[in-house]
Design a protein that fits this description.
mainly beta; four-stranded antiparallel sheet; Neuraminidase
Length: about 270
Amino acid sequence: MLTRRKMLALPLAASVLRGATVHRRCEEVRRFSVPEANQAVAADEEFLYGIGNHVIVKLDKKTGKQVSKWECENGKPLIHLDSGVVNEGVLYCAHSNFPGVPMVSSIEMWDAKSLRHTGSYSWGIYEGSATWIDLRDGYRYVTFAHYKLQSDEPTRDPRWTALVQFDSDWRRRQGWVYPEEVVSKLGQYSISGGVFAADRRLYCTGHDNPEVYVFGFPDGGSVLVHEDTFAIPMKGQGIALDPGDAGILYGIDRPAKEVIVTRVHES
């Protein structure tokens, strides 16, 4: 069993990296037309994965050309895929019954090479609506969102959105909430995308705002530390960093039905 000291290793390691303020800006590189990708994009060394509510398209990273596709009918069995990440040949996607209530969530898995659906881990009714997942140093991080919508739970709103750390057997280890100065900007929605940067900062997006929020882990307490916000040419939803080039950030433009490639510069 992991000790409390080991459980805290990643967040504390992230917090001690803080020093001089880092400012970021984002430069658009190119766009691909991907009508199916209305939720997110994931990336591995060779390919991109455009993610829709119940569809995934595999794309050549350089040309945007479709390589293969997976799809199911709405609700048979999937309803609302959100952000995804590729780790050791597996594409993991957060999934929920959004906008249904009570909110139920799962993590769905595909073989990235074949796009064959290979597994599912379900929480049923848990912390909220799963919106993004990333894996880092043997742990799994999932954000469970709450919304300020008429159809949502009347006693909860985006302030209840939480980032939860699990071990490799999906046992909960820790949890954090997002700071008020960011939550207050989310409107009716919540945190939709997130990914660990190379320096262990978290890059997160809302649902509509064309910006990325950069977080570190706190030295104490349960609130993530908001370190930076930078503009991006896409309005929220799921994002991905290129595993071969830490400066390349991918996202989507829902109205234009495009996947966007950008480069993040630090100063």
